[in-house]
């Protein structure tokens, strides 16, 4: 296990008490977006596979951001955006080289959401935006992808993703049958 990872257990639904327990170096662009959203009065975190990969000591392929800000707010905060999945609350923010530093300049920012019914075995028919990070994390596929990170607050791990990483275990958030019925591709991602 990489030294970025430090064993910390939290009970389901609880926030990690020690915000300095784990430090992940996030790209300048990710920090810029998170800080900009926070200055407007909203929450924002790096989320999902980038957090998992950083804990494993791997360079994340991309960095996703989740926020309490609705898409129209995110679009108003940044000069250049693309509606990449606006019906699901996703906007891609394009940063200048000065804002992003080295590396990626495009980052997906998605509003906290709760997924509706999946009718096609792949995508929810509709989503509802929520103000709760915990509700957003609850809709995710695996515990190791249901972690969020903030530079000041540390890691948010409501579903024991860190423990599952340490034990090399892939476990769904909630009932496996439900998660795989919602999106059959999750079975392949779990392998």
UniProtKB/TrEMBL annotation:
Cofactor names from the entry are: Mg(2+)
Q: Which InterPro entries match?
A: Bact_CCA-adding_enz_type3_sf, NT_sf, PolA_pol_head_dom
Q: Which UniProt keywords apply?
A: Magnesium, Metal-binding, Nucleotidyltransferase, RNA-binding, Transferase, tRNA processing
Write the Enzyme Commission number(s) for this entry.
2.7.7.72
Quote the Gene3D superfamilies the UniProt record gives: Beta Polymerase, domain 2, cca-adding enzyme, domain 2
The positions making up the signal sequence are none
A single GO BP term for this record reads:
tRNA processing
MF terms in GO? CCA tRNA nucleotidyltransferase activity; metal ion binding; tRNA binding
Ranges of residues in domain Poly A polymerase head: 44-171
Keyword Amino-acid biosynthesis belongs to the record: no
**Pfam families associated with the record:** PolyA_pol
For whether the record's keyword set contains Metal-binding, the answer is: yes
Q: Which family does it belong to?
A: Belongs to the tRNA nucleotidyltransferase/poly(A) polymerase family.
* Protein's name in the database: tRNA nucleotidyltransferase/poly(A) polymerase family protein
Query: What is the native source organism of this protein?
Result: Oribacterium sinus F0268
